[in-house]
Write a structure and sequence with these properties.
This protein is 29% helix and 22% strand. The protein is of the alpha/beta class. The protein folds into two domains: 82 residues, 2-Layer Sandwich (60s Ribosomal Protein L30, Chain: A), CATH 3.30.1330.30; 143 residues, SPOUT methyltransferase, trefoil knot domain (Alpha/beta knot), CATH 3.40.1280. Helix 5 links the parallel strand 5 and strand 6. Helix 5 packs parallel to helix 8. The longest helix is centred in the last third of the chain and has 14 residues.
């Protein structure tokens, strides 16, 4: 049976300040809970309406559907919710192809970007300190458990780029046509804020400006969604491997 303290704690983890205070986060749904249980993430407790995670009965507490609704952030709660410990940050590496996010604020965008990185075999994303928190429940839900396979770190991008040894690409309305661009094996792609793009303070570090040319005869669309733009970029980069 859920206690009032548990309900209060779990619901508080929706906010970043409480996730930081208690060093915990929550995930919802059977699939993502199952993947978290099988990962290196420490799971404090699973709240489920039935015993469905074989081998993890010791951390599972059976609750009713009405109790699940009290702690769920979903309109239609899905059987299980897990409370987990936020792991220690991984080491930031400079080799390989890296995605850098500059002040990306929408949880759905970050979750989708993490999922795309996983799909395209990119194992590192570096976020500015202003970018939405990885452990925001909406980010985790959008990532579909890909956050378990992609290293996401937060840092001062200005400071990081000042010592970064490889090419830095950035997306702009005016730049080199992406379909004629070459992607470095070791390099970094900056994606900017949804409304304002890449911060001007980062411009000096960008060695290659690229753009996705519009094809429509009536070009009224101002820009692409950041996650949508990145999907095109990663798809074009991947085409060079075949």
């Amino acid at each position: 049976m859920l206690t009032n303290n548990e309900v209060k704690l779990i619901n508080s983890l929706v906010k970043k300040k409480f996730r930081q205070k208690y060093n915990k986060f929550i995930v919802e749904g059977i699939k993502i809970t199952d993947e978290v249980l099988k990962s290196k993430i420490k799971v404090h407790k699973v709240y489920a309406t039935e015993l469905i995670f074989e081998g993890f009965e010791s951390v599972t507490e059976l609750i009713t559907e009405s109790e699940l609704k009290k702690i769920s952030q979903s309109v239609h709660p899905n059987t299980a919710l897990a409370m987990c410990e936020i792991p220690e940050p991984t080491e930031i590496k400079t080799d390989g192809f890296i995605i850098a996010l500059d002040d990306v604020r929408d949880p759905g965008n970050l979750g989708t970007i993490v999922r795309m990185a996983d799909w395209f075999g990119i194992d590192q994303i570096i976020c500015s300190n202003e970018t939405v928190d990885l452990y925001n429940p909406k980010v985790l839900q959008s990532s579909m458990a890909s956050f378990l396979r992609v290293n996401v770190n937060y840092t001062d991008l200005d400071q990081f780029l000042s010592n970064y040894p490889h090419p830095v690409m950035g997306t702009f309305m005016e730049g080199e046509n992406i379909y004629k661009s070459k992607f470095p094996e070791n390099g970094l792609m900056i994606m900017g804020n949804e409304a304002n793009g890449i911060s001007e303070k980062l411009f000096p570090y960008i060695t290659q400006k690229i753009t996705i040319p519009r094809q429509g005869s009536i070009q009224q669309t101002e820009s692409l969604n950041v996650a949508m733009a990145l999907s095109i970029i990663l798809g074009e980069r991947a085409s060079g491997f075949y």
